[in-house]
Amino acid sequence: MAPWKLDVANTFTPGERNYSLPNKLLVTAGPTNCSPRVISALTQYSTTPVCKEMYQMMDDMREMLKYVFQTKNELTLALQNSGTGGLEAALANLVDPGEKIIIASGGIWGDRTVEKAKIRNIDVVKLECKPGEVYDFAELEKEIIKHKPVMLFMTHGESSGGTNQPLEGLGDICHKYNCLLAVDAIVSLGGVPYFQDRWGIDVGVSATQKAIGAPPGLAFITLSPRAVQRMKTIKTRPPFVYNLWELAKVWNCFGEPRKYHYTYNSHMICAAREALAEIVDEGLENRWERHKNTAEAFWKGIEKLKMRCFVPNPELRLWTVNMLVLPSDIKWPVLLDYLENKYNVVIGFGIGPTTNKALRVGMMGYNARPEVVNYILKVLEDGIRYCRSSEGQLNSTAPKEVV
């Protein structure tokens, strides 16, 4: 008998917590399903954060991330956080409280960045455009001239509105007025064309669980030399966990002696490295083409089912996350419940500007394949048929607001 007396007694039967997640087809705005190759990488042995094997994987990741971001930036690394944490790190390391930035919001993700900035007492000028539309550069230049911000923040792929914001040429406009260009590329990187250096982007942020094809858990960030110089002038120290100067030492960005900052999950590093290696093996151009073909096949398929895309202009549609407008007589909660219960298919509901207006169907990374498109169209057709049946009508309830 052990000599210790516990304060909290065990309340469940031994073995009661044995649990296995069901294998569902995740066609949401993320996370997405991982390839067998990435899943296998998650089963590697654990290791310490300061061993040669870990450092080798980090070095590999940095080089592959430069390729995926299309950049030569030395400060290119991963944070142990979600994409949200990567965006917050960008603000914390590059903008002091009281300084002015412009956030051109295209939906909920831009709105959330406004919230992050205000928490840090940053002076935010928020711009808004209509759902399903993008920003005109002339309009943005007028706002930059008017407000003189230190940063313009844009969302490249806005998954709450289904748009792909054009960026080429915007960096030149920003730099003309001594303004940094920061871009949320969380849902676009690896799935649509993105050129960090060519487009003059100073801050690029992404994450593992979207088109990159790894599980959620790491954020990616890359900073231009201009942004690195800006970071040297910041007066307010960033939170410890977001300090990019210290994390740059961990990732050997500037050739300094490596330094421990916090413990990275070695399994996540293994999986992210493998996902990036898959992109390198496939080639970015081929990967972009695969996502484009997948999206276009889906668009054609839903037309045959008498549905339409939320974004009218195909040139502005995001390839990785498709915004689907249902027929007016179909209740989306009934449809989504039916598809998940019968087929183990998970489709995303609309959020932000598309709440109760559209569904978010994500086919990216490993799921950007013709067979996935065909299967989703098939189950959608069956789901609509069910919703219009007497049983479906009986289960039909008014859509609930989603926050």
UniProtKB/TrEMBL annotation:
Substrate binds at R360. One of its GO terms (molecular function) is alanine-glyoxylate transaminase activity. The modification N6-(pyridoxal phosphate)lysine is found at K210. Its cofactor is pyridoxal 5'-phosphate. The keyword Transferase applies. It is an enzyme of class 2 (transferase). Belongs to the class-V pyridoxal-phosphate-dependent aminotransferase family. This is Alanine--glyoxylate aminotransferase.
